[in-house]
Amino acid sequence: EIHIVPKQKKDLEWKDYCAAILQTMAKALAKKGISIPPLNIIIDGREEYGGVPSGIGLSSSAALEVSLIKSLAETLGIEKEISAEEITDICLNAEVALGFTCGIQDPWASLMGGNYSARSFFQLFDCSPKEDANHKIIIETELIKIPEEYSAYIINAGTKKKTAEKRNRHNIRVIEGEICAFLIRALLLKEFTNGT
Prior knowledge:
Layout: H1 14-30, H2 60-76, H3 84-97, H4 105-112, E1 121-125, E2 130-131, E3 137-138, E4 141-145, H5 163-193
Antiparallel strand pairs: 1-4, 2-3
């Protein structure tokens, strides 16, 4: 039996993210008639072994979650039974269970990312997933070529934040973004109805 930590917990640990993923994945798989058997899981996220630095805004939680789901799916022999969209949805629901107001961008980027820089491409995707007639989630993606005169950099500023602080700031940014989107829609509607 797996228990998710309470949302009020001040500082989350990696095991809390793993517990949330296992519980959320178990619920998703149960709908397909698949159960997760008892398992011993060892996770070594040290940077020297390819781990993502934690607490610096590089989506280390999403990287861990996606890796855990893909590893479990491979162990259970169900890789073909769980789509990229379903993996993304499991990650989203796990983060929400831990108290984050989040979207699909971090798990989708962890799942679908690749060495596009070597080919000068970026993957764009719609962060507002749609559903088909069977209520299956669809995430639209497109690879775009980056003009040669442009560059992109990912910089580790070396600043770490505690999970509780990060969660609170993130949730506030989500609310601010929703307010901005509402105001932009209201302004556009006003311009449209005024005929300007």
